[in-house]
UniProtKB/TrEMBL annotation:
This is Oxidoreductase. The lineage of its organism: Bacteria, Bacillati, Actinomycetota, Actinomycetes, Micromonosporales. InterPro entries: Fido. It comes from Micromonospora parva. It comes from the Bacteria. Residues 97-225 form the Fido domain.
Amino acid sequence: MTTDPLAPLLALADIAAAVEQARERFDQALGHRALRRHGGQVAAEVSLRCAVASAALEGAGHEREAVRAGTVTDPVLQGALRVAGALPGLSELWPKAPRQALAKLHVLAARDLVPEAELGRPVADPVVATRLDGLAGLIAGGTKVSPLVLAAVVHGELLNLRPFAGPSGVVARGAARLVLLATGLDPRGLLAVDVGHREREPEYVGAAGAFATGTPDGLRSWLRHYMAAVEVGADQLTTIGDEILAAA
């Protein structure tokens, strides 16, 4: 019997409970009545807000309404928008060929930011290659833990590795959301988890650094942050639903 490599994470203090609480908060948000008639509009707004948040975390902060109006040409923001828009179309490829999907995310995120020859190509580092292979194995069915835990690990590992030139954070955040879509936890892309990372940015940065240490305390710090960001993302779904109903 093969041991699940991520199962020990659930034995870290408070993590199993935090994962359960985050999942329950999202499940509650999914009951919002705006989703019955305006689901597509809600998903589009979540996508926009996640892209704006992801770009801001990459150092390219812009007002959401200016982005909505189409007046922002910043290449980091445009890359984040392309990544967010592409996620539903990549959900089937993701578990079958995760490295190919990551390459596609990088092409979308880094166009106009890195030389064309570097688009979709990981940095030439054997350590990075080995760890990407390990990550791909997890994504392709190598773990049975909650998709929230897998998404957190994918996100943290890609932030740590920075396997691509340019806006690696945009790729990492897109990949984590892709985990949630592809596993069926969030098939419509309704969980605005990147908004949670943005709202808790100091904690996000610190916890990502802690994750990179690989220590139990570092992993716990990152997982606790990630689940808190999921709860913020779930609350954001409720806020968006309320706004759309009020405008209807």
